[in-house]
Amino acid sequence: xxxxxxxxxxxxxxxxxxxxxxxxxxxxxxxxxxxxxxxxxxxxxxxxxxxxxxxxxxxxxxxxxxxxxxxxxxxxxxxxxxxxxxxxxxxxxxxxxxxxxxxxxxxxxxxxxxxxxxxxxxxxxxxxxxxxxxxxxxxxxxxxxxxxxxxxxxxxxxxxxxxxxxxxxxxxxxxxxxxxxxxxxxxxxxxxxxxxxxxxxx
Amino acid sequence: xxxxxxxxxxxxxxxxxxxxxxxxxxxxxxxxxxxxxxxxxxxxxxxxxxxxxxxxxxxxxxxxxxxxxxxxxxxxxxxxxxxxxxxxxxxxxxxxxxxxxxxxxxxxxxxxxxxxxxxxxxxxxxxxxxxxxxxxxxxxxxxxxxxxxxxxxxxxxxxxxxxxxxxxxxxxxxxxxxxxxxxxxxxxxxxxxxxxxxxxxxxxxxxxxxxxxxxxxxxxxxxxxxxxxxxxxxxxxxxxxxxxxxxxxxxxxxxxxxxxxxxxxxxxxxxxxxxxxxxxxxxxxxxxxx
Lengths: 202, 290
Fold this sequence. Notes:
The complex is a heterodimer of chains A (202) and B (290).
Chain A: H1 2-18, H2 26-48, H3 54-61, H4 63-82, E1 104-112, E2 118-120, H5 132-147, H6 151-165, E3 171-179, E4 189-197
Antiparallel strand pairs in A: 1-2, 1-3, 3-4
Helix pairs in contact in A: 1-2, 5-6
Chain B: H1 8-28, H2 31-36, H3 48-54, H4 57-76, H5 81-100, H6 111-120, H7 142-170, H8 173-176, H9 179-189, H10 201-204, H11 209-224, H12 226-229, H13 233-254, H14 259-269, H15 272-281
Helix pairs in contact in B: 1-4, 1-6, 1-7, 1-14, 3-5, 4-5, 5-6, 6-7, 7-11, 7-14, 11-13, 13-14
């Protein structure tokens, strides 16, 4: 326990110093912080399990079940510390809101009619995902690629919004909004990334 | 260690919670609209190819109904449990990957409860609270205790992982540079699953940044210390208050609500199962006076 606490103190001190003095390369720093996370969280978990008679448990549940439990823990830990992207879902890393943000960006999709008047597309009403911002974020990614000249991204964007909008408007705008210095009058700065037609012949 | 004295009832309650949560989630999923999306959109996860394969409206609808039926059967405790829960967990995995495969990220809200569904298939979670009257065979008590201990550890680990990363990646500046205000404002303005705009109040009252930052620091400490809640009952109550408070505050401030986690916390970390078991057993006869 004392060794573990000493390790936590040393690693945290290293982290604090790292804010002021560049101690190593970005890769080295990433692996140092990963090691620190593993030492801290893993150490506490091992400590919590110290009094569990593992041999007795293994005999009680059998090797197959023990392997299943072990595999899930191994995969979750690997997901956390090896850091695969979301393609490895469900073994992704838990890292939301863990690093400073001097600006936070998000996407909005607006339906526009012939007069140029607009209203936000209600993505949550489509029941396609429990988290609408994951879809608006994806549409923003495609819109930015389309604005850079990616024809496939433009086509994908157009067809995806057409399904989500269900004929509510002839065109849609994808906006990129940024929150950096929010005020009550202007909490975010939004600009149109691209406007796409949603009719069959567009 | 938490749930070290648990039995079939506690494990069955977890089964009902996990598969009940999935029933509610799946009920809302619009398979028909999903199947009309461009197939190229279904590319964000390793099972993207499988999702594209099943993304026709009739097949997806059948899979959804099968997953719903499987979840309902698991809630009812139909046996053989490993077969019902194993098949249902795989169906849930496909449906969940489908709904995640079109987004810009895989949100964490359902990840934990998905892992629990996969894990529960390996343990006799239908030995109690089941539609079957036939008593289950004699088993090692660890068959009921270990899954609950493992699942509670998995829940604690996910919090500890986030807390440890925020501490070592975010350092001190994350609490002092206004990041929390930008997150609150952006998540409130952005379309979320809940239409709550309380978060924008932070702009009218700038002093709120201080309690928000302090709250984030307290939450980070509680998250890191989550494994302690596995073994220390007194700390567990403090931890539950902070973590539950954190989940409720993210609903109002950021339009993010991990209701699944709140149910799991109630089943795994509170005396709720013991209270329900006592209620089910009914009033015990008073001990005879000497």
